[in-house]
Amino acid sequence: MKHSTNQQTRRGRGPARRIGRTLAFVLPVVLVLSGTLAVTRVNWSGSPSDPVLTAADTSTSAGTPRAAKRAPQDVLRDRLLTELQEENPGVALTHLQQAVNGRPSLAKHCASIARALGQAAVRVYGPTRAQSYARPVCDTSFATGVAAAHG
Fold first, then answer.
1. Are residues 104 and 73 in contact, defined by beta-carbon separation less than 8 angstroms?
2. pTM of the prediction?
């Protein structure tokens, strides 16, 4: 009889055990991913210039017709960063998901935009509050941006 009671007790912990196992699998993956992304963002060349700023500067000062017309992902990113400051990161993430759903060509830029939103959220709200807005838009890119800005 004791054996059957023991099995019932184990069955009773099923949902909690499944959640624990899921977290045990997902959390290391997120940590490894964010660590890998953090290492790729480090300027290993030793030059003080920021490659992101350099790329942006050359595209606007080139004097070409393309410089006059901004890429759709840049326009979307800037609009969402403004929404993040005026509303909250949740609103910006919702609009990012809607934009990607409405215009699938933006999907390849979704992760970089979500990371930028995560980094901006840390500057505006602090790391703990910014992380509270994280959700699976573009995988874990928002959370990765929060972690990169905090670390």
1. no
2. 0.53
